[in-house]
Amino acid sequence: GEDVEQSLFLSVREGDSSVINCTYTDSSSTYLYWYKQEPGAGLQLLTYIFSNMDMKQDQRLTVLLNKKDKHLSLRIADTQTGDSAIYFCAERATGGGNKLTFGTGTQLKVEL
Amino acid sequence: EAGVTQFPSHSVIEKGQTVTLRCDPISGHDNLYWYRRVMGKEIKFLLHFVKESKQDESGMPNNRFLAERTGGTYSTLKVQPAELEDSGVYFCASSQQWDYPETQYFGPGTRLLVL
Question: What integer pLDDT is reported at residue A18 of this predicted model?
Fold first, then answer.
């Protein structure tokens, strides 16, 4: 079955790096995504990684995928107060149609 | 280009009443999805339309929920009668049919509170 887990909270100081972790159970995942939700807003796609990749970098964002351990992480370099939001990881599995399976979301709080 | 819009942004109703949520996808997007996040939990898939056809409705919780997409443009999700456990945020998303990899664009959600 599909199950995606994340820790609920993360607090960092401005300028530090943030690492948000996610584990999933479906080994047939094709794409894994990171979405950001700011207060009162919808989900904004940040980045995605194909399951045959180990790493993807996009400006301040680095995604690492350990397919053996079914572990996905999102690293935000030089975290800013504007990065405060809820971050959701999501997977799209082979044979699951187009639906995304989301984690519970990690609330990132950036302190001055 | 306008994004996915949802109406209303908030709805407070009493148990047993009916509520209809509306989603307008991005123009030209054939795929339309409904998802729901119950307080503090994960976002769960409800159903997927391709144009006006239901492609996957495996996530619909029960027959109190009815989704339609007549004409293949906007969609409605009706809850009748509403129960307390239906409270949560209902998200709509849309994507292009042949986008690779598929990117689902989400609306701001409708926050439903059933008292």
Answer: 97
For residue A15, give how far its alpha carbon lies from the nearest alpha carbon of chain B (Å): 28
> Which 61-100 residues of chain A touch chain B by CB within 8 A?
88, 90, 92, 97-100
Tell the residue number behind the tokens 């009706």, with chain if given.
B78
Work out whether strand A9-13 and strand A106-111 pair parallel, antiparallel, or are unpaired. Answer: parallel
Cα–Cα nearest to B21, from B38, B1, B35, B41: B35
Q: What is the mean pLDDT of residues B97-113?
A: 88
Q: Do A104 and B101 touch (CB under 8 A)?
A: no
Cα separation, A52 vs B99, in Å, equals 19
| Mean of per-residue pLDDT scores for chain A | 91
Question: Minimal Cα distance from A3: which residue of B?
Answer: B42
Mean pLDDT of the region A88-108 = 87
